[in-house]
Amino acid sequence: MCTAEDYPVRAAARSRTLAGLDAELIRCRACPRLVEWREETARAKRPAYRDWEYWGRPVPGFGPSDASLAITGLAPAAHGGNRTGRMFTGDRAGDLLYATLYELGLASRPTVTGPGDGLELYGVRVTSPVHCPPPANRPTPGERDTCRPWLAREFELLRPTVRSVVVLGGFGWQAALAALERAGRQVPKPRPVFGHGVRTTLAPADGAGDPLTVFGCYHVSQRNVFTGRLTAAMFREVLAEAARTAGLPVAGSAPE
Predict the structure, then answer these.
(1) 44, exposed or middle or buried, with CB in 10 Å at 0-12, 13-18, 19+?
(2) Backbone φ and ψ of 193, nearest 5°
(3) Buried-most residue among 23, 36, 65, 77 (CB within 10 A)?
């Protein structure tokens, strides 16, 4: 029997499908600070959501198991994913993400609230390097590293189909590259530097299969959007290019 501390390594390794990985992940209690925060937030609630029954557990990735495009950010929001149980749902960042995916023809609806709203993603999976909401939206490096086996295994299970990854923010960039390396991708040394619109191509370390293109994008945080650091047009451009690289049809784009 594994302890809470080594649970992510053992449970991720024994997962053979994304559904199985998600089922293992939501039982994780490896990071005491994050467990305490997510559960306290779920008990206290925000007044606007006092009638909600908060999820209050680690938030799994969302999207089909044969996705060709993956999007990864930082961590769930305390009153967003921690409330709804679905990545990027219920907060301002998710509003822009899913509206843009809908505009590109990669989501079934532009606005989302939580499970039961009918949202489907087409060829896209949304995930995160840290699966519990951190206080002040700041996970520690140790928490990031403890959570890494989940993302690494998710990338391994997506390997047959995934062709591009969009990484939101500098913290997510470093976390994603480390997870991809653990998942069997060749990451250059020194590692590519994060920036909006940068891209790097990672070959499979074993030489088998297709390369993976990783795109950097400013995070869709409320602060970045309100200050104009990231505009809807800038975000759409990165997502559209990543989708085309993944071989997905993009609404409004001329066929090649």
Answers:
(1) exposed
(2) -85, 140
(3) 77
Q: Which of 73-82, 110-119, 139-148, 229-238 has the lowest mean pLDDT?
A: 110-119
The token duo for 142 is 């140790």
Which residues make Cβ contacts (< 8 Å) with residue 248, sequence separation at least 6?
A: 68, 69, 106, 122, 123, 124
pLDDT of residue 46: 93
Identify how many contiguous H helices and E strands the chain contains and give both numbers: 9, 5
Beta-bridge mates of residue 125: 70
Architecture of the domain defined by 7-245: 3-Layer(aba) Sandwich (3.40)
pLDDT tens readout for residues 62-119: 999 999 999 999 999 999 999 999 998 877 788 899 999 999 999 999 988 878 889 9
pLDDT at 253: 61
Residues 6+ away with beta carbon under 8 Å from 112: 86, 89, 90, 94, 98, 119
What SS3 state is found at 133?
A: coil
Compute the mean pLDDT over every residue in the chain, rounded to the nearest whole number.
94
Residue pair 96/235 in contact (Cβ under 8 Å)? The answer is: yes
Coil, strand or helix at 20: helix
Cβ contacts of 46 within 8 Å, gap of 6 or more: 79
Q: What are phi and psi of 197, to 5 degrees?
A: 90, -5
